[in-house]
């Protein structure tokens, strides 16, 4: 059985691997450090909120981009607004690839390139799913750590 110190070291090591792989920024390490005994579920709750919100924003963007295909016009300013919000929350969470793709989406919105927007949103969804899968290990380690506290 792992000690508390060993589990905390494993969590930091797993997060550093995600940073090294380019999926996360150092910002996420700061979030890991904010978790303490007074807020033992901080990290898992924050991750749940981030992924839920990001997935909803992606669904909304996909819906907006699909509307044009059935006769509606894409509301590029609103799509850009959603991308801006997702970029901010992704940067705050440390989701590097998702935040970077938001910048690409904002550029595609500015030039009103619907197919480019669709491609970026697809890449964002893939990056989000990859990050979610890789963070699962961190969340499992964190659950084991909480059981020892």
UniProtKB/TrEMBL annotation:
<keyword id="KW-0902">Two-component regulatory system</keyword>
<feature type="domain" description="HPt">
    <location>
        <begin position="39"/>
        <end position="138"/>
    </location>
</feature>
<dbReference type="GO" id="GO:0000160">
    <property type="term" value="P:phosphorelay signal transduction system"/>
</dbReference>
<keyword id="KW-0932">Cytokinin signaling pathway</keyword>
<dbReference type="GO" id="GO:0043424">
    <property type="term" value="F:protein histidine kinase binding"/>
</dbReference>
<feature type="modified residue" description="Phosphohistidine">
    <location>
        <position position="84"/>
    </location>
</feature>
<dbReference type="GO" id="GO:0009736">
    <property type="term" value="P:cytokinin-activated signaling pathway"/>
</dbReference>
<protein>
    <recommendedName>
        <fullName>Histidine-containing phosphotransfer protein</fullName>
    </recommendedName>
</protein>
<dbReference type="GO" id="GO:0005634">
    <property type="term" value="C:nucleus"/>
</dbReference>
<comment type="function">
    <text>Functions as a two-component phosphorelay mediators between cytokinin sensor histidine kinases and response regulators (B-type ARRs). Plays an important role in propagating cytokinin signal transduction.</text>
</comment>
<dbReference type="GO" id="GO:0005829">
    <property type="term" value="C:cytosol"/>
</dbReference>
<dbReference type="InterPro" id="IPR008207">
    <property type="entry name" value="Sig_transdc_His_kin_Hpt_dom"/>
</dbReference>
<keyword id="KW-0597">Phosphoprotein</keyword>
<dbReference type="InterPro" id="IPR045871">
    <property type="entry name" value="AHP1-5/YPD1"/>
</dbReference>
<dbReference type="InterPro" id="IPR036641">
    <property type="entry name" value="HPT_dom_sf"/>
</dbReference>
<dbReference type="GO" id="GO:0009927">
    <property type="term" value="F:histidine phosphotransfer kinase activity"/>
</dbReference>
<dbReference type="Pfam" id="PF01627">
    <property type="entry name" value="Hpt"/>
</dbReference>
